[in-house]
Each structure stands twice: as structure tokens, then as C-alpha cells.
Design brief:
This protein is mainly alpha-helical. The protein has a domain of 54 residues. The protein contains four helices and three strands. Strands 1-3-2 form a three-stranded antiparallel beta sheet. Helix 1 packs antiparallel against helix 4. Pfam families: HTH_17 (PF12728). InterPro entries: DNA-bd_dom_put_sf (IPR009061), HTH_17 (IPR041657).
């Protein structure tokens, strides 16, 4: 059985705002749930680049600017998955 949604008395801008609010709410929910399960996982530089879908030069730049934190043992650098998720911001 097909589901139908009828919209009455709503402008395109109001619909756009409603959709935007739902997407933001779902994103925050997803971010919170993901952080609970894997927040302490340590990632290597290459794993971090793959996780964030960025180049290693971007990772180095963001680390240097303090946008994300890294942890080290000797010459090795690690990034906490939870810290990476916390550093994400919603762009409006």
C-alpha cells in the first residue's frame, strides 16, 4: 500500500526549514550514538585520514591549528575517534 503525504498551507521555505531541522536532529543523534560506541578507539594517521576522507597534509594542518587533537607514543601519532567526532561542527 502506497503512503501519501499531503501538504497544505505550507510554503516551500517552511518545508525546506522543516527538512533542515530533521536532518540536523538526525545527524546529532547519529553523532551521539557513534561516539558512545567507539569514542576511545585510537586511529593511526592513515586511518584518521581515511575516516575523515582527507589528505595527510590536511590532517597535519588541522592538528597544527588545534582543530583536532593527537596523542603520541614516541614518533607515532594517534587520534581518538571520539575527539574527531566532537570536532565536527554543523554548517548552516
Amino acid at each position: 500500500m502506497a503512503k501519501q503525504i499531503l501538504l497544505h498551507c505550507i510554503s516551500p521555505d517552511e518545508l525546506k526549514q522543516l527538512i533542515k531541522e530533521v536532518i540536523i536532529e538526525e545527524f546529532l543523534d547519529f553523532k551521539k550514538n557513534l561516539a558512545i560506541h567507539e569514542s576511545d578507539a585510537l586511529l593511526t594517521r592513515s586511518e584518521t585520514c581515511e575516516f575523515l576522507k582527507i589528505d595527510s597534509s590536511t590532517l597535519w594542518s588541522w592538528t597544527k591549528k588545534g582543530k583536532i587533537s593527537c596523542y603520541g607514543i614516541g614518533a607515532r601519532r594517534y587520534y581518538k575517534k571520539g575527539d574527531l567526532l566532537k570536532s565536527l561542527v554543523i554548517l548552516k
